[in-house]
Amino acid sequence: MNTQVVSLKEHIPHRSRALAQKDCGHIVIEDVEITFGKGVSASQAVKRTSLDIRPGEFVCILGPSGCGKSTLLNSIAGYVTPSSGTVTVDGNAVTGPGPDRGMVFQQYSLFPWKTIRDNIAFGPRVAGRSNVECSSIANTFLEMVGLSKFADKYPAELSGGMQQRVGIARALANYPSVLLMDEPFGALDAQTRLMMQENLLSLWSEFGITVVFVTHDVDEAIFLADRVLVMSASPGSIIDDLHVTLQRPRSRPWRRAPSLWSSRRSVSSRSAPRASRPSNSRTGDPCFVPSSVSVWCVFPSPRAPRRSMA
Length: 310
Ligand SMILES: Nc1ncnc2c1ncn2[C@@H]1O[C@H](COP(=O)(O)OP(=O)(O)OP(=O)(O)O)[C@@H](O)[C@H]1O
Fold this sequence. Notes:
Elements: H1 17-21, E1 27-36, E2 43-53, E3 58-62, H2 69-77, E4 84-89, E5 92-93, E6 101-104, H3 116-126, H4 131-144, H5 160-172, E7 178-182, H6 190-207, E8 210-215, H7 218-224, E9 227-231, E10 238-243, H8 258-271, H9 291-294
Parallel strand pairs: 3-8, 3-9, 6-7, 7-8
Antiparallel strand pairs: 1-2, 1-4, 4-5, 9-10
Helix pairs in contact: 3-4, 3-5, 4-5, 7-8
This protein binds adenosine-5'-triphosphate.
């Protein structure tokens, strides 16, 4: 993907008025519990969880396989309805999928019978935009992810990394306020994965969008996130909320900095299984470590200012 992303300023008219004028993408999860099945076959995937993700934050959810990361993400996407509790985005209760929340999956989930251009234009077309608008939006995002030359190809003709760039472009083409990503780079080779991470950060800083990103990979979480939410093993709950204060912008040389090693040790120790961790004597749940305790600060400088879309 091009490291140089195209400015979106000229395309702001496509964005909703609300998105252009004020901060959007505020996710609030209140007392959400998710259980699949009923009766003897009932299985709890997510224990009672509450979260407040602020507009424009980049949040990674980290945890062992099967702990409920995707299930929690899917409750924000509207694919899974919580058994109890509420999820709201910008004050609106989530009752199903919506264009305000873009989703990117590990398996690129593109329409194989549509060209790359038509895959990207799909959302705007469903939203009733004119052919001219769809074409303009598709061209913008094709350029943004460096795939203009492949506009008329089909997904099967592209590499995995290229297909995932289409997946991201397709999700962004609706100008969502929230981008939900479920291990989006898990199927890519190591080199492509690093490049995709860098370019995702470029797009994120350009858009000012809220990102919730599920991963197993501690390095990936630290490199990308403002906050790392660590989930316990199944049934999952958030047991740590770690604020990453490492300076931005972050790029490849930054990965070799000793500061990163100490952050990695810190997150790894918190995300490791912890049989001996103190628990709440009433519920038996692992104790939540307040974020003020969890903050580690490697560089004192604040993160680089975000460009305003307004
Ligand atoms: N639709 C479903 N019906 C029944 N059980 C489900 C469903 N979706 C998820 N589960 C169960 O919920 C639990 C959590 O699954 P989930 O996919 O959210 O975990 P995960 O942390 O994302 O795992 P991984 O990292 O391996 O993808 C698992 O026990 C899984 O079998």
